[in-house]
Specification:
About 20% of the residues lie in helices and about 35% in strands. With about 210 residues, the chain is α+β, with helices and mostly antiparallel strands.
């Protein structure tokens, strides 16, 4: 079987005079109004981000960046996405799935989740997407043209399944290459296969 893988403390001083009581009440009201404003802003930002994931064009007048709501992650990064650590957040709408041509990656999957973006010194966009089914999960690093989001290339960087619980893959992404380690526990002894891919400036992943 495989083995996967912080409010300041405020003190109120009692006042004997009415002046100080009124002052305390006024300050409390100001604090409450301020806090309420912060909560509204936070809720608004979260709602906007969720709406953009559903349809970026709905809130953007200019040409939308389909990847704008997806955070960048610093390199190097080790991706071990699996059923234990993937909570199903950032599920993409059918409209975005179509625009990013994700069905061309694998048409057997219904659920597509945006994970993070990769900042590389290449004139292309790179995004990590997880494809999830009931018993199987694949995570891809996909390169796109910036103008029209045409798929340039893809490479599977992690894999997990819970049917046999015998196969999984872990990937490491650096500025120049992708290293994917595949594990097979079907036999008495585990079989480990390592594949390395060079990241070209064109967005292509070339197996070494």
């Amino acid at each position: 079987m495989k083995n996967k893988g912080n409010i300041p403390n405020l003190e109120l001083h009692k006042s004997k005079g009415m002046h100080f009581k009124l002052l305390s009440i006024t300050l409390s009201l100001i604090c409450l109004i301020s806090c309420s404003g912060n909560e509204s802003t936070t809720d608004s930002e979260a709602k906007e981000r969720a709406e953009l994931l559903k349809d970026p064009e709905s809130t953007q007048k200019t040409k939308p960046d389909l990847l704008a709501t997806i955070p960048f992650i610093k390199l190097p990064v080790v991706d071990s996405t699996n059923f234990d650590n993937c909570n199903g957040e950032n599920k993409l709408s059918e409209k975005i799935i179509s625009k990013l041509k994700l069905r061309s990656i694998d048409s057997n999957y219904e659920n597509f989740h945006a994970r993070y973006r990769i900042a590389l010194s290449t004139p292309v966009d790179m995004i990590v997407i997880t494809l999830a089914a009931e018993y199987e999960m694949k995570t891809y690093l996909i390169s796109y043209t910036k103008e029209d989001y045409q798929v340039i290339d893809k490479v599977m960087i992690s894999y997990d399944e819970i049917a046999e619980s015998a196969f999984y893959s872990v990937g490491k992404i650096t500025a120049n290459e992708v290293v994917v380690t595949n594990y097979n526990y079907m036999g008495e002894e585990p079989v480990i296969d390592v594949k390395k891919y060079r990241i070209e400036k064109t967005g292509k992943f070339i197996e070494k």
